[in-house]
## 1
Amino acid sequence: MRRKALPLLCAGLACGLWLCACAGNNGRPQPPEPANIQVFRLADNQPEGYPTVVGNRKFAELVQERTNGEIIIEVFPDAQLGDEITVVDLMRFGAVDFARVSSNTMATFSPSINALSLPYLYRDKEHMFNVLDGPVGDQVLESMRHLNLLGLCWYDSGARSFYSVTEITSPDDMKGLNIRVQETQMMMDLIRYLGGTPVPTVFSEVYTAMKTGVIDGAENNFPSYVTASHNEIAKFFIVDEHIRSPEMILVNTRVFDSLSEQQRRIIREAALEAAQVQRQEWARQEADYERQAIASGVKITRLTPEQRQAFVDAVAPVRDDYEEYADMVRQILETP
Ligand code: GCU
């Protein structure tokens, strides 16, 4: 059995629960042998109740149920195991087993993933999921084995838009502003093309950076904007939807490959089912958080087609700079 101290305790607890549930009920499956119980950790930087964490909990529940209690996945939300980059580093060396991470974060480790987050790439959410649930998405999930990582499924993360302490309605308004980005080269390039200064910052530090004036704005989806309280400071939200950066559940390949064929199948299927739950939860919460943003006094601007076009034109060179992904971009654009 892996990880002796904590797992032993969990194994004891799980066994106890099973014994209670199965006592005197011969038709039921038998509790797992303690020696067969494995306990894994899944990291997420979002708080309890956030759509990704709801999806993760569903994933853990399905896996535990279908492996007859032999695989227990403990979910650690709120960046308890570290920020995303740290968690991915830990995962590569087996110190964390599973994680839910943003594809932009993964692009810093495996640059071809940038192709998924090129600006104004998808026609809409349906187009994005046709891509992710098809050959391109599968290829990306399998493309991280050189990092000892395997992607299991795709979560929704909506579209990312800008928000700031002063009003922005055009790329011109961004001149001279410090805009926080995730730590990827492509996002830095995107901000430069818009005339702003990119400031790569860990997600959990964005609030303080904004509060202390180190940054003037950032970009994200409504649920992240509100749950991280960025709406308290950046009172202008502009729905420009410059990128979609989907999220995934990752597993360390040494963990995954050490499991039985049946357990691996259960994990893959559970991840796909959990992703469906996450996507529904996302749709529900996204609208809810937009309402909360409005209620908190934020000015939300929906761009006119002309205003939006100014952003599309300004960031168009990003696609040329990443010409090496032309083939993947073509596959994405050809996906219905
Ligand atoms: C989203 C995403 C996080 C990510 C964050 C960021 O909120 O869910 O995983 O860390 O964006 O902007 O860094």
Note: The chain has a mean pLDDT of 93.
## 2
Amino acid sequence: MKTLWQHCHAATMAQGTYSIIESAAIVTSGTLIEWIGPQSELTATDFDQIVDLNGAWVTPGLIDCHTHTVFGGNRSGEFEQRLQGVSYAEIAAAGGGIASTVRATRAATEDELFASAERRLKQLLKDGVTTVEMKSGYGLDLENERKTLRVIRRLGASLPVSVRATCLAAHALPPEYANRADDYIQHICDEMLPALAAEGLVDAVDAFCEYLAFSPAQVEKLFIRAHELELPVKLHAEQLSSLAGSSLAARYQALSADHLEFMTEDDAIAMGAAGTVAVLLPGAFYFLRETQLPPMDALRKHGVKIAISTDLNPGTSPGLSLRLMLNMACTLFRMTPEEALAGVTLHAAQALGMAHTHGSLEAGKVADFVAWNIDRPADLAYWLGGDLDKRIVRHGVESLI
Ligand code: NIG
Ligand code: FE
């Protein structure tokens, strides 16, 4: 099927900038973009279908590159506690936090997890997301991590979205391994990761490197095993304290290091040199009422590509709109709307190892795009949430969610 999408303007996001084409047209052939350029330069004529976009602004489909969409229960009770002054770390130390979501996730059936995650995922898709990464990490044993990863694969098969599954078994210490973090990491390396990878359930490996989770030495063991299994790595690093986890991630050519409020300039230098993307999560920053900002100037100075994501999770960022995160990245982190849009398109694709096929509107790339009824690209970061008028195209076909 060859389709002409005409009468639009495009922010192609090639090279991570708006790279605007006014009065543009796009030709898609099957699932791919065959041509994009000024409509006046269009020469092809043999279309199966012609779609008029009525002056819409077309951007790449949005990419949410860091989510924990699949979980049981919710933690609005902890939200109330935190508003009364109890900290995230205190709640975790008292057996709440991630551990409470682990209990609810273990108690849920695969179908229950699928149903609740599907509702959340649909919210993201309605907002213009066409690719999403989802992590396990609330199962913390083989059976329940498998259950979560299977749900992630099923979501990708049943909704119009490309899905990447990340194994975050090293998210927290399960109760069976209390005070035995080294043994748990060994168990992940010896049993869980090889089994889950062999079942085709894992696209990347992540860990939570933090004083209340796993040390850099423990994370390094996991990274070595991931590389033996030929899996790329990512890392939750420098969210609450500075442990040089992001430098460690860079040493292992991580696709991304995520959060990063407490990273140092040395970490930025290491990430820039390694091509490790900085995934910033303004929803978690906001929701935890953090005050330490990620070092934007150091990231820019050392050429680190910056992605933005919802971090959709029940504890620190119950965020159902990636577009809202664009606004928060600008307002809270002082990013420009152009940087923020690159952060949910080309740079988010790079954070998933998909930049060769996704994240910008260029001939040869996958035909995932959104035609927005807006006046300027910056409008995407301007409106605080809401359901903007749009048409969503995935793999060359308009998707109705
Ligand atoms: O990305 N930092 C660790 N993991 C999640 C929070 C998980 C939770 O509290 O349930 C995050 O913020
Ligand atoms: Fe996270």
Note: The mean pLDDT is 97.
